[in-house]
Amino acid sequence: MTDHAGLEEPAELEPDQGSLDLASPDDTWTAADWEAQAAAVLRKARRMTDEDPDDLVWKKLTRTTLDGIPVTPLGTHSLLDGLETSGRPTRSGDWDVRARVDGSDAKRANEEALVDLDGGVTSLWLTGATDYAVALKDVLLDLAPVVLDGGDPQAFLAYAEGRELHPETNLGVPAADATADLARQALERGIRAFVVDASAIHDRGASDVQELGWSMAAAAAYLRTLTGAGLSVAEAAGLVEFRYAATDEQFTTIAKLRAARRLWTRVLELSDGSGEMRLHAVTSRPMMTKYDPWVNMLRTTVAAFAAGVGGADSVTVVPFDSPLGRPDAFGRRIARNTSHLLIDEAHVAHVADPAGGSYAVEKLTDDLARAAWATFGRLDDGADLDAEIEKVVAERERQVATRKRPITGLTEFPNLGETLPVRDGEPDDVRRYGASFEALRDAPPASPVHLATLGTVAQHTARATFATNLLAAGGIAVSAEPARVACVAGTDAAYDEQGAETAAQLRANGAEWVIVAGQPRDWADDSCAMGVDALDFLTRTREKLA
């Protein structure tokens, strides 16, 4: 397992100067033509100047993942030079719609499970259950696979004694705890027994590459354990399921799941074996928000779409209201119907590999696989991933704080007047990406900021709206009435003409701290503009309000 040949580090993107290889032979567009058109749009948006060369658009539009992997703004045939893009196994047919059921309250779990199954769910992910007779009452175990999580596999097998089990039933034991005895019991029953749950380190803040690399290291250790106990590689591979998180970054999610299959195939090849990967995708819990939770429906829909396109065999959509407590019937219905809409209405599952052949996705798949293989190699040789995850967490926090990684409904377009749905029970025990902003919203200041606008509505509306939304992200309301903290919003010309006088008048009316919406001015105590560390700015402002 220490032979990591066949996969290398990803290469950086270079501008493609050739033909775009468009569908029609009459098309003669080149990369330079695209650069000119894209540059014109960026100049209009003031993201480029007239003096900037057109090919700067590659740098401006290329997004870099937290792993440092560039995501191209334009897929071209040259991206596939030297890449292997065929022979990747993927799902065929509809994916399994899997509902997550909290089994801590067995009676309620049973009620939710039966409603979900009646509503079209095709398998159950049962967490924390101990009383299987109650939790699974009237569940047809031969038709609906049950995947355990945190339960007692022996108690489940005893409960299911004499009953036929669906072959995708999984005892849910972490791969790190795999034993030959449990493996043989599962083989006798014709079911699976183990899970490589990479979503667990995703929940800790890991990147896509770290999630993939960790899963392969865990899977390699699992193979060693079971083959060392006498099982064949094929037998061991057939007993395990992989679980990954699907986020609303659709292209990286698609590529991540496709890369996972490629990586597992390579691990099995190096182990002198073969087998297919059983892949379960669950929509990310950290990407969700407690505030404006309705936006979670959009996030999970994009994530479920990406999971389906990426080839997941099973997809779990986390209900939108999970950050508020135990999801209610409406949240669970929306969650399961998300997959049904994608499968039955959008027909996403009717193509075996929708992303296959896409220049951009193939390139990203290859880059993720190569980077993950390098991470797997380090872990397989004894490296510790914790420090690397901490660096990713810190960088993500920085991007969220500066709103370079916006979170709709929380850091962008917050609604201070919303009434949150009430849910019983405890919310998911995971630190969400917007946790720092949620903490500010949890304890809003009692006093608002006085918004002082200069000029006409047309002149001040852009900066006034920007400042209002920024302040709301920290739980701070604005008011037209005088207050201890004031924010001036207008044009640069208005600031030159009236700024100092306005600030003086505000101070005379009781303002102790004056903010300017825009670049710093000598008459203001603070400023806020695009790119500001919003978390730092909001913390300072709240201190002044206190």
From TrEMBL:
<protein>
    <submittedName>
        <fullName>Methylmalonyl-CoA mutase family protein</fullName>
    </submittedName>
</protein>
<feature type="domain" description="Methylmalonyl-CoA mutase alpha/beta chain catalytic">
    <location>
        <begin position="193"/>
        <end position="430"/>
    </location>
</feature>
<dbReference type="InterPro" id="IPR006099">
    <property type="entry name" value="MeMalonylCoA_mutase_a/b_cat"/>
</dbReference>
<dbReference type="Pfam" id="PF01642">
    <property type="entry name" value="MM_CoA_mutase"/>
</dbReference>
<feature type="region of interest" description="Disordered">
    <location>
        <begin position="1"/>
        <end position="26"/>
    </location>
</feature>
<comment type="subunit">
    <text>Heterodimer of an alpha and a beta chain.</text>
</comment>
<dbReference type="InterPro" id="IPR016176">
    <property type="entry name" value="Cbl-dep_enz_cat"/>
</dbReference>
